[in-house]
Amino acid sequence: xxxxxxxxxxxxxxxxxxxxxxxxxxxxxxxxxxxxxxxxxxxxxxxxxxxxxxxxxxxxxxxxxxxxxxxxxxxxxxxxxxxxxxxxxxxxxxxxxxxxxxxxxxxxxxxxxxxxxxxxxxxxxxxxxxxxxxxxxxxxxxxxxxxxxxxxx
Length: 153
Known about the structure:
- This protein has 153 residues and is α+β, with helices and mostly antiparallel strands.
- The protein has a single domain, classed as Alpha-Beta Plaits (2-Layer Sandwich), CATH 3.30.70.
- Helices cover 39% and strands 18% of the residues.
- α1 (28-41) packs antiparallel against α2.
């Protein structure tokens, strides 16, 4: 439609099933490149990505023509097949059910990018459970404990 303009940003977070630390630094960059390809295929703009051993953070400029649940499903199923197909781990890799998706204002893009890039430093001080709960609270998301990721910290 003419004269329609959008600019939306989303910070997406999800965890490895059982929060196992399966993402190895030896192939982490290959996973991030693969996920980047999925994001680009659907015409989103990747702004930041960082796969930690047991979860992943992604910041995108969002293409409003695809629903976030559909994008996350594409990323999860595609990256599951990628990891398992390359035999990066001895067992079967799978992401946990669910995800967090948080809007980011244009003025907060740089701080969120820095936050994602500096995950290794951040997790020297905080475990993923605390980080995820902080994201939910700071975004004023009502949640029930029984529907959160299974946390094994």
